[in-house]
């Protein structure tokens, strides 16, 4: 039964990230063909953060209260697919932007709900969840490859591809294991319905430090996503999308390593390595600016560090949150971490990344570069280093008593 479950959950993760990978990377190129301004394109990418901040309160009114998780996922997938297919009909920013926010508010909850459902049913989450989640990286790559095969990076094809995949995702969700609502009964408060009961976890000092560090690391984190494409474009890299997809290949490797690290080193050391890799990634990018023949090697180093940056920080973090929560608060806790990572953290991070980019624009290009990239990349590098120090000093690993039975083998 567990083997069948893992196959279903892995397929679910594949479809979920296939959708995201089909449009997120290439949307900026498509919006440029519509003559959207740089500021408008930046706002469009920020729609994901706005959707992440809205969705917990909208979905929290029904998730874990009235409907089973797999049914909610089905509705979100099918309706989200319809919205994606409708996006190309909006040729102006005034129509496209609110529709995109609406879609993101539908998609983001599937991330937390999918994690919650998986952690609920897997017998050995610490070992099995990373292996199941590994298919998300494969799905992201598959989305990019499919879009590239359709030559749709600068066309509306990307939204039709993602929309069709989203409808398949929604229908497939109906075949996931039944996960009934946990918060039933007349004694359920409005706070619980909205998922605010997860805030009680902040009473634990280490959990509060963890959430603070997750928020703070998101600020430098989004410098990579906002600015890497611009940097590589100024460097005139060919096949940029294909080369940056190597990051997802490293995802697969580190997903497989994560259970070993959690078993032998625990949460603190594993997450510490994740944050440290963000520091190394940004210093590698900063050093690549004037590195001459070593520049390409340093940039690829930053790209290949992605697996450790993401898996050892965020996937390990989601498992830590699951350990700290109980059955009744699991969904709310996963929604809360999603709110921090993809909502508030993403909004602040993308905003500051854009401002720092504008601050370091050069009046006259130097060696073909229109920005002072060494200074731009050093900003998140030192920011991530500060978070690393805070985490090292104040976060305490949960005791062995908090560990789930049947830890990774």
CATH architecture of the largest domain: Up-down Bundle
Task: Please write the string of helix (H) and strand (E) elements.
Answer: HHHHHHHHHHHHHHEEH
Secondary-structure-based class equals: mainly alpha
Number of strands: 2
* Number of H- or I-type helical stretches: 15
What's the story with the biggest beta sheet?
A: 2 strands, antiparallel
The number of distinct structural domains comes to: 2
Strand content: under 5%
Physical arrangement of strands within the biggest beta sheet = 1-2
CATH class of the largest domain: Mainly Alpha
Our measurement of the CA-to-CA distance between the termini, rounded to an integer number of angstroms, reads 19 Å
The CATH homologous superfamily name of the largest domain equals MFS general substrate transporter like domains
| Model regions low in confidence, pLDDT < 50 over at least 5 residues | 400-409
Shape, per Cα inertia axes: globular
Explain this structure.
It is a single chain. The chain is an all-alpha fold. It is 74% helix and 2% strand. The chain has two domains: 1-181, Growth Hormone, Chain: A, CATH 1.20.1250; 201-399, Up-down Bundle (Growth Hormone, Chain: A), CATH 1.20.1250.20. The protein has helices spanning 2-23, 27-33, 38-59, 69-86, 93-121, 125-149, 157-173, 190-193, 205-234, 240-244, 246-288, 295-304, 306-324, 330-359, 373-394; strands spanning 361-366, 369-371. Strands 1-2 form a two-stranded antiparallel sheet. It is globular and about 60 Å long.
